[in-house]
Write a structure and sequence with these properties.
alpha/beta; Rossmann fold; 2 domains; two-stranded antiparallel sheet; 43% helix; 15% strand
């Protein structure tokens, strides 16, 4: 995918400044990602610290729009100035495609890291944004669970592999396949936060129940407690009576996990993903882009507050 371009209005919004605050010598009609990064550095306009978050997008049920959501979420975090690493865990390589790349273009994937002990830094690729990196995936990843099976400490391979690079990133985002296996168990054990995209239909409840049982067993058996679990209602169509009923049921049964932000059904969102473009590149004014930004506006203050409280406790200690 070619590097995106931005108007001065978009750039000012991303940096949280007025267009007049952009230094005269750096004003342009059209900006590229490197121009914005230079401006951000010059003006010292970086987002508030969140610590180093590892966030997993997972639902055992397929078809919930998880990859479209996770890739556009990761992209927007990078546009806002965070250093982001997106890790594609799905052998179909859809997250890789959503960034504009084909998985087959890359010789190495996470399989080389977890099974063949290749350092993660050798597998990380650069995207068209200077602060968004990714780990690609392709069909070679389909043998991952079998390869991990006989290994000692197999549940912790991903967590351990991240140790060499995690200090470089504000966010490490995992896009997981809709299945339960050793690779997804690794992702759960590596994650601080879990995002569960669901559709507003009653079939989604079956996947949720199993996922929450799995999370509970991780707490009991492996002593791993997630900091946050967020259920995100995706592709919501308010004109469907069943969708409204399913949403009410989610609000009743999972009120403590359900994000108030709902991602509305958006044709441009689905089209952008199929074309290998995040929705913020395809149409930053679309419902999909607006709703993901609203989701970030809801989640980021919680993470910033958590990081501040953790720092305060560290200094107090």
């Amino acid at each position: 995918m070619e590097a995106p371009t931005y108007s001065s209005k978009q750039v000012a919004e991303m940096l949280g400044v007025s267009p007049k605050e952009i230094p005269e010598g750096m004003r342009k009609d059209v900006y590229g990602p490197d121009d914005i990064w230079e401006l951000r550095t010059t003006l010292d306009r970086f987002p508030p610290r969140v610590g180093h978050r590892r966030q997993l997008f997972l639902n055992f049920k397929g078809g919930t729009g998880k990859t479209s959501l996770s890739t556009s979420y990761a992209w927007r975090l990078a546009e806002l100035g965070y250093a982001v690493l997106l890790i594609d865990l799905d052998s179909q390589g859809h997250a890789t495609k959503c960034l504009g790349y084909e998985g087959d273009e890359f010789e190495k994937t996470l399989l080389d890291v977890l099974v063949r002990k290749t350092p993660l830094v050798q597998v990380i690729q650069k995207s068209s944004l200077p602060n968004l990196d990714f780990v690609p995936s392709n069909l070679s990843m389909s043998t991952m669970d079998l390869a991990l099976m006989p290994m000692a400490g197999r549940e912790f391979k991903l967590r351990n592999a991240l140790k060499d690079v995690e200090a470089q990133y504000d966010f490490i985002i995992f896009d997981a396949p809709p299945s339960f296996g050793l690779l997804n168990l690794n992702a759960l054990m590596a994650a601080n936060d879990l995002f569960v995209p669901v559709l507003a239909d009653f079939l989604s409840f079956h996947g949720l129940k199993l996922l929450f049982e799995t999370v509970q067993s991780l707490e009991e058996d492996l002593n791993h407690v997630l900091d946050h679990v967020y259920i995100v209602v995706n592709a919501f169509n308010a004109t469907f009576k069943l969708a409204k009923e399913a949403l009410e049921a989610l609000q009743t049964h999972y009120p403590e996990y359900l994000l108030p932000t709902i991602i509305r059904q958006c044709t441009k969102f689905a089209q952008a993903s199929s074309e290998g473009r995040p929705v913020f590149v395809a149409d930053p004014t679309s419902k999909g882009a607006t709703d993901i930004q609203a989701m970030l506006d809801n989640v980021l203050p919680r993470l910033v507050a958590g990081a501040a409280a953790k720092n305060g406790a560290t200094h107090a200690g």
